[in-house]
Amino acid sequence: MRNLQDILYKSGMTEVHGSLDRKVNSINFDSRQVDNKDVFVAVKGFVSDGHFFIEKAIDLGASTIVCEELPKKLNERITYVVVSDSSYALGVMAANYYDNPSKEISLIGITGTNGKTTTCTLLHDLFIGLGYSAGLLSTVVNKIDKTEIPSTHTTPNPMALNELLRQMVDAGCEYCFMEVSSHAIHQNRIAGLDFNIAGFTNITHDHLDYHNTFKEYINAKKMFFDNLSSKAIVLTNSDDKNGLVMTQNSKAKIKTFALKSMADYKVKIIENSFSGLVLSFNNQEVYTSLIGGFNAYNLNLVYAIATELDLDGMEILTAISKLKSVDGRFQHFKSDKNIVVIVDYAHTPDALKNVLGTIEDVRTKNETVITVVGCGGDRDKTKRPVMAEIAAKNSDKTILTSDNPRTENPDEIIKDMQAGVPAERSAKVMSITDRAEAIKVACALAVEGDIILVAGKGHEKYQDVNGVKSPFDDYKIVEQSLKNLNK
Q1: Which of 49, 419, 450, 485 has its CA 20 to 30 A from that of 18?
Q2: 3-state secondary structure of 62
Q3: Using one digit for the tens of pLDDT, what is the confidence trace for 377-435?
């Protein structure tokens, strides 16, 4: 039980009806989860408005209602708290409810279109490898030290988020590396958190189904940096044209990292092959099994953050040399017939372009690049033709297929993609709706030395069709398909 007045501290109260001197059980923003003596926060969400469910929450036992607009009829047994922004209040209240765990741990947040998962996971692996206790909050998995907890969102809701941070603190974690999505920033899921370091990877075309315009998307990301304290440090990618835009108006200390432009942390690529990267950090050459220019950026940010957290430079570089690729992020292997297979989460135009660009950089040009790619349903439709165009222009053969169709007709999604295929490349592009069949065909087309890229789902172990998630693992399917061809 918590004291209501304590958890409302700094929540933005503008009006109160009823007593604040009462004990409450928990905080809920989903009326279906409300129990006796809970606080119900009526949030105006993307899909529905919590204000419509206030009476339902009271019927289920809520003793306090936090809202932006008071109901027309008030219940004298209930405390009503009016706030200027319910979603912001929820974040602050959640932090207060769990005694502000972010103030007891070094919290590092990474945002950007691409690279969030890889950077956070590599940081966690590096710190764990050096003997530190650390937490991870990512798209793929959440971790408290080495204990894994399944992840359902890139950034959890405020109550789940602060509960995980409290568990990390109680378990003795010194650091937490956290992905910060644009949705989470816009929905105030990170309100009330105290970040020590914030990293910006890049920003490209994505999530326009939610943010409507690219400018809105940029502004959502920028809010993260605008709200940092003067004690925080920002590490921004100065090679990205919006890298310094992000830091305008931020009170935090600004530092930069780059491969091309002048920066506080600059890395040079010495070698780039399917064997890995050789990078130069401050004239110290380091080999890593990770591949591609995008991973050079990720490792540069990892090095910069570890340095800002006062780790020894040579210790960091030694640890970087031992890091392995992240599940579903340029995850690759060679088949018995010397066919190179790459499975990658690339589900944005820029990510797909980066992956295909990396393949182009390391290939011998004597092999065929076969790309299998789809686009998700119920998501930004404008990127579909762009994705297909990038795949067709940068692959020798392309197979357009399903990703997670969700509630959309997969054939219609593929039709949207086909509109982006250049006429001169159309003979090299085919469409196969069934993703498993598309992967099998790609494997059948490949001969010794060829390269197969399966893009879009990466680490995901399911396919979402009409609300039903069925087991589906790109890596296992392509691996098994190649084995079957060898029988």
Answers
A1: 49
A2: coil
A3: 999 899 999 999 999 999 999 999 999 999 999 999 999 999 999 999 999 999 999 99
